[in-house]
Specification:
By secondary structure, this protein is of the alpha/beta class. Helix content is about 40%, strand content about 10%.
């Protein structure tokens, strides 16, 4: 299916200065709401794209008997067996739907900036912020692709799920009460044996062999390095220059770097990196990154020393979870 023009606009907005401002602006739960609303808009528009391509869905009817939970598709294809699957470590709304205990005042939720030890004010903040976000954002509202196009009651469907998949690592996440049907699959894509058996090509291998130590710098796919304030980039490069025995591989989205790193000969700028393969290589000494959940899962399994900075593209609790360990 081809994306609609509106979906393309949302994609452009993801790369706009709307997100660049978070390098300097507050990244509190209140400030992150417009970002979450943009994601919601993308989900709704993707549903519209599918609605306009029902012939593609018709071809799937005889091929799919189970789905990982996409409400309009499930409804249209008459799929009865489904598994809610989240990219988050936890979701209070889903937990409530399936009858799982939720205690944000005791265990920090995904958007909370706090860790496992909470004072009375932090407990109050958590207890207030979780229902506040649910009130502001509301529950996703999808309409059926079939006439009379009624609203799909998601909360009445979710309890019927046999299993729920969460992008959580039970050895890293804060302990919380869960149902037996909640399966934590965080890091499922990290195949240690396969990664460690792979050989990097000559380009990456030569970079890792260039100096005694090597550090990878990457801040994810939402907040770009190119949008980091110039003074921050200069400060980071100033520190890097003092470590001449270390090669720094920096994922940077533009070619022009002379305004802050003209004479930094131990930095190698690249627009893309084979992140998991590099992290699995013993020659990579450390990782400098945002506290994104994907990166947290990877370094947790691969055991790579990591320096984390907090950005709005990370989930609040992931940084606290890693510090906890």
């Amino acid at each position: 299916m081809e994306p609609s023009e509106k979906l393309k606009e949302y994609g452009d907005q993801m790369e706009s200065e709307d997100f660049a401002r978070f390098w300097t602006d507050d990244s509190s739960a209140t400030e992150i709401i417009p970002v979450l609303e943009l994601f919601y808009s993308m989900y709704y528009e993707q549903a519209n794209v599918m609605k306009n391509n029902l012939h593609v869905l018709d071809e799937l009817k005889n091929e799919i008997s189970m789905f990982l939970f996409s409400n309009p598709l499930m409804d249209y294809l008459d799929i009865k067996t489904f598994i809610p699957s989240l990219s988050l470590t936890h979701d209070i709304s889903l937990a409530k739907s399936i009858g799982e205990p939720t205690m944000p005042s005791v265990v920090s939720d995904v958007c909370s900036p706090f860790g496992d030890k909470l004072n009375i004010f932090e407990r109050a903040f958590n207890a207030f912020s979780a229902p506040y976000l649910n009130f502001i954002l509301g529950y996703p509202e999808y309409r059926s692709f079939k006439s009379p196009y009624n609203i799909i009651d998601i909360q009445s469907i979710e309890p019927e799920a046999s299993f729920v998949f969460l992008n959580s690592n039970p050895f890293v996440d804060f302990p919380r009460p869960t149902l037996t049907k909640t399966i934590e699959i965080g890091g499922i894509s990290v195949n240690l044996n396969e990664l460690r058996s792979q050989k990097l090509d000559e380009k990456w291998s030569s970079l890792l062999n260039k100096r005694e130590k090597t550090m990878l710098i990457s801040f994810g796919s939402v907040l770009f390095s190119k949008d980091m304030p110039l003074e921050n980039k200069k400060a980071l490069v100033s520190a890097i220059k003092k470590l001449q025995n270390v090669t720094f591989i920096w994922k940077y989205e533009e070619d022009e770097t002379d305004d802050f790193a003209k004479d930094a000969d131990n930095i190698h700028f690249v627009k893309w990196v084979p992140q998991t393969a590099l992290l699995a290589d013993s020659r990579l000494s450390a990782f400098f990154t945002h506290a994104g959940l994907g990166s947290i899962n990877e370094v947790s399994y691969l055991g790579k020393p990591t320096i984390l900075i907090r950005t709005p593209s990370c989930i609040g609790s992931t940084l606290s979870e890693t510090v906890f360990h």
